Amino acid sequence: MITVISPAKTLDYDTPVNDAKFTQPELMNYSQTLIKSCKSLNANAIADLMKISPKLAELNYERFQNWQPNFTTQNARQAILAFKGDVYEGLHVEDFSEADFSFAQNHLRILSGLYGLLKPLDLMQPYRLEMGIKLKNGTNSNLYQFWGDIITQQLNQQLASEKHPTLVNLASNEYFKSIKPKQLKANIITPVFLDESKGQYKVISFYAKKARGLMSRYLIKNQLQQANDMLSFDLAAYQFDKSLSDEHQWVFKRSEKQAEHDKQQSKA
């Protein structure tokens, strides 16, 4: 069973890390091709392409210009330690043991506009290149066209040894679109997280992102390898709702009262 999550816009290359173990991204040849296109853009073009401020555009211009393919722990960082944001707040790798990192390395994958598919301990240099960006490269007008079947094929290779291959989709729609479900040789399960708001249950983006990280953490910390074991997920007061779920979409929800109770316990 493999779980896929999205990357994050926010990066941390400053906090000291102790874990010396690392691997190299497997799709670096493709990354280098994309970087050539990125290096041809000036800061103004990056601002227009990514719809970001001039300050952020200048930062990412410098990142692209400084990017080079020889990754070491001096110029790069393990992906799972570099990404920050709501999903990674829920994942909370700060207390991961060696066994946790090892299990994550085998069962967690991070989708990426630049690197395609990352293992948690793969080194990466800082970048910003969201999957939905319409970056032209050769005959490709966007990153979905550029990656084509590559990410799906990579996942199929990594799932091939599984007796009952399963992909747990905890990625955003933007990133999951880089995978082609019809070509994926696995059962796909997408957990959906609903929160109560004004008496109605719905997906609230901020909470849903954090819940995806919490589910990833739950799978890793408990070393779960069977999909049905996810049904017992109860972090942050979420509970599985069988009545709202189907074969491929599993719904977890929590009431405002449950959410508030969980917050109070966290503060205690």
From TrEMBL:
It comes from the Bacteria. InterPro entries: YaaA. Pfam families: H2O2_YaaD. Belongs to the UPF0246 family. This is UPF0246 protein GCM10023211_13580. The gene is yaaA.
